[in-house]
Amino acid sequence: MDTLSIRLKIGDREYPMKVKPEDEAKIRQAGKLINEKLKRYREEFGLDDRQDLLAMVAFDCMVEAMDLSETNAAGSEQVKATLQEINTQIASVL
């Protein structure tokens, strides 16, 4: 399996990583989004402590992931109900 060695800068630190070539853009985008959130929290709340900033970003990301998970679950239920309705209609025609 081919991997790329990259260095991702988050905050003031660089992290070496080995990633699949097809995942490189996604991982770099994730790093960019984290850095943007760090900057936003630093400016919005006047935080300078890296630990506090990273904790706030982690918390924010977790809330977003939980919201997305709930949205996906609700969407899946809606799709399931629609498919059941379609199946019922097809069965009644046949």
Protein model, in words:
This protein is an alpha+beta fold. The protein has one domain (4-93). 70% of the residues lie in helices and 15% in strands. The protein contains 2 helices and 2 strands. A hairpin with a 2-residue loop joins strand 1 (4-10) and strand 2 (13-19). The mean pLDDT is 91.
Q: What is the total tally of β strands? A: 2
Instruction: Give the averaged pLDDT, no decimals.
Output: 91
N-to-C CA distance: 50 Å
Helix count equals 2
Largest sheet: 2 strands, antiparallel
Low-confidence stretches: none
Proportion of helical residues: over 70%
Measured by DSSP, the beta-strand proportion falls in 5-15%
Shape, principal axes of CA atoms = elongated
Q: How large is the radius of gyration?
A: 21 Å
Overall SS class: alpha+beta
Order of helices and strands: EEHH
Q: If strands are numbered along the chain, what order do they take across the biggest sheet?
A: 1-2
